[in-house]
């Protein structure tokens, strides 16, 4: 969570990810993934819409409730996001693709692929 904004009573957690660029299946299908430690909207619980980091006005999806208020710096973990996420991503406005990593059963992180400016530049030519 990089920021939290409220507009007309709707709290939006701005994430360092873009639904438009990284998770278009959430906007096109629409598919609403589970978030670790969250539920669908529940009255009386802190509830947030998840917002992306692009300038696209529709770069947000769904609302989830949490047991406690979210804070800047909290980590949001989307579950079951490998189906179309990787093959349908874009680099709209130069937004980088997320790295592809694997959490192993022993809890270690194995980095499989990182994306950078050269990946963006090579798509333009």
List keywords for this structure.
125 residues, 5-stranded mixed β-sheet, two-stranded antiparallel sheet, 27% strand, globular
What does it look like?
The structure is a single chain. The protein is an alpha+beta fold. The chain contains three helices and seven strands, in the order ββααβββββα. The protein has helices at 19-22, 24-28, 117-123, and strands at 3-7, 10-14, 38-40, 47-51, 60-66, 100-103, 109-113. It is globular, with a radius of gyration of 15 Å. The mean pLDDT is 87.
Please outline the helices and strands:
Elements: E1 3-7, E2 10-14, H1 19-22, H2 24-28, E3 38-40, E4 47-51, E5 60-66, E6 100-103, E7 109-113, H3 117-123
Parallel strand pairs: 2-4
Antiparallel strand pairs: 1-2, 3-5, 4-5, 6-7
Largest sheet features: 5 strands, mixed
Average residue pLDDT:
87
Provide the succession of SSEs: EEHHEEEEEH
What class do helices, strands and sheet pairing give? alpha+beta
Percent helix range = 10-25%
Strand order of the largest sheet: 1-2-4-5-3
What is the strand content? 25-35%
Q: Oligomer, anyone?
A: single chain
Low-confidence stretches: none
Give the overall shape, derived from the CA principal axes.
globular
Give me the number of helical elements: 3
Question: End-to-end span in angstroms?
Answer: 34 Å
Radius of gyration: 15 Å
Please tally the β strands and state the result.
7
